[in-house]
Structures
1.
Amino acid sequence: GNMRVAVLGGLSAACEIDSICSVTLATGDDMRVDMERASLDGSWLIKFSGTSSIDTGAGVDLVFNGDDETRVAPEFLIASEDKKAVRVDDDVSQIMVTTMVESKTMMSTVQFIGGKKINMEADVSNLGKALEWVDCAQAKQ
C-alpha cells in the first residue's frame, strides 16, 4: 500500500508515500491530538480534532510532566471551517514539539463551543523515536 505505519510505545506514526506524515499523540471518544509534517524539511504542526466545534477563543491548556500549565493563546490557533479541527501555528508548534521530546507526558485541555472541556493525556516518552522513524521514512521518499 501507500502507507507505512510504526507503533512506538503509545504513539503511532504513519507516512503516506510522497505525502504527509503524522504522529498520533492521543485519541479519545471526543478528541484526538496529532502532529503532521508535509516533508522532511517541513515543520511539524500540532492538530487537535474533535467531534464538536472547538472554541478557539478559550485557547488550549497544556501541562507537561504534571508541571505548571502552559496556555496556547487563541491568536496561535488556526481553525478549520467547521472548527472541528484546530492547528497550532508554526512557531508555537515548534516550541511544543521541542518541549514534548523532552517530556514524558502532555495533558491537553480543549474546550468545545458550549463549554464542555476535554482533557487528553498523551504519553510522549517515545516521541523522539517516533520522530526519528518519520525522518527515515520521509528521507527515503
Note: The radius of gyration is 15 Å.
2.
Amino acid sequence: NLMPELLPTLKYLTVQSTVGGQLGKVVNCRVLSLLAQPSLVVNHQLKRILAEDDQPVLQLDEGDLRLTPVDFANQVSRQFANALAGVSAAAVARLVVIYAPSWAAECRLPADAQRIRIAHRQIRDVIQILYDRDTASHVQIIYGGFVFEDELATVLWDVNVDGVLIK
C-alpha cells in the first residue's frame, strides 16, 4: 500500500469570523478532503500532519447532491469516525473543519442560513459524541461555500459557525 504524498502546506486560509468583517487567518495548514480520499487515507495523513505540527484542516463535502439533514448526519458520522480513529482529543481540539459543499460552489446553488446552521451543528455534535463537549467546543468549524450577503450575519451569529472562508 503506497500512501499518497501529503498536500503542500498552505501559508494561510482567510476567514471572516465576525459580522463586523474582522478577518482571521488559519496559518501553516494542510487541507484534507473527506470526499476526495478514503477515510483511512485521510486518517493516516491527519496523523502525519499532527506529528509535523502543521495545522490540520478537514474539508467536508457532500458532493454534488444536497443531502437531507439525516443523510448528512449519517455521512459525517461515518467519515469522522474513520478519519479520526486513534487521534487523541487534544489533537482533535487543534482541528479546523471546513464545510464546503460542492453544490454551493461558485454560486451554483447557494446554501441558506438554516442549512448551514444545521450542518455545522451536526458536525459539532458528531465531534462531541466521538470525544466530549470540551473537545467539540475547541474545534473550529468554518463554512466554505457561497452565502448570500443578506444571510451572512445570520450565519456568523450561529454558535456552531466559527467563520466563513474568504476565497
Note: The beta strands are 10-16, 23-33, 55-60, 96-99, 140-143, 163-166.
3.
Amino acid sequence: MGTWNVDAISIPGILRLTLEGRFTLEEMTAFVEAHNRAIDGYGDSDYKVWCDISKLLTLSQECTQLFEKAKLYSNAHKNFRGSAVLVTNAVVALQHRRTSFES
C-alpha cells in the first residue's frame, strides 16, 4: 500500500510532496490528481516542488507512467521554478531520473 501527501499550504510557493511504500494504480492516480489540483491552485504565482520519495518502493510500469505525467503537468506551467527530490532507493532513483529526463 502506498501513501502520499500533497502540501501546497505550509510553505508559500513550495509544493511539498511525499510518497511512501508500494503504489497501486488507483493510489498513484489519486496522487496525480491531487498533485495537479495543487498546481492549479497556484494560478500564475511562481512555485517550486520539494518531493520526498526516500521511502517510496519501486513503481510498476503503469505507476511510473502516471508519475511521469505529473512531472510533465508541472513542467508545462510557466510559473514552475524547479524541483528538488530526496531519494534513497537506487532503483527508485533510476526511475525518477529516467522519467525526469524523458519529460
Note: The chain has a mean pLDDT of 93.
4.
Amino acid sequence: CIIEITAITLIVQFISGKLQLTMSRGYIFFFALILSAYTDERAVILLITSLFIISEFDRSEYRIPDVFTKTTLFAFTLLAGDDWALLALTWGWMALMYLITYLAPQSIGRGDVKLIGSLILVSPWITNVPPATYLLALLGISSVLALPAALWNRRARGHVPFAPAISAAALLLLGLGMGGMWR
C-alpha cells in the first residue's frame, strides 16, 4: 500500500510538473491514499490517475492536452483490433462531434470529444454493457453532473470544464461495471 501511494504520488507530481499544473502535495497524496485504498488493479489505477490529471488540467486551463487524448485514442484503437462495431461507434461519434464542433464551436470542446472517444474504446474492459449503452450512460450522467456548474457559470459568462464531469461519470460507470450491477 505504501509503495502504491508513493508511486501514484510521484507519477502525478511528475506529470503535473511537465504540464505546468499546480497541485498541492497534500492534495496529490490524499488522491493517492484514496485510490490505493480503492483498488490494487494497476490498469484501474492508471485509468483513474489519468482521469484525475485530465480533470485537474481542464479545471484550471479549460482544455485537455492532446498528449493524453490522441495517445489514448491511438492506443485503444489498436487494442480494439477487429471489433468493428466498437470502432464504428467510436469513430462515428468522433466524426459527428467534430462536425458539430465545426458548425457550433462553443458547443463542446474537441478534447472532451476525444476523451469520450477514448472511454468508448476502453468501455468493454471496464463495464459489462454494450459500448453504445455505455456512451449514452456516460453522456447522460456527465451532463447531469455538469449542469450545476453550467448554470452557475451562465450568470458569469464563463467556460465550464466538462472533463471533470466526464471523468466522474466514467468512474461511476466503472464502479457499476466492476460491481456487476449491469450484468
Note: The CA atoms of residues 127 and 177 lie 4 Å apart.
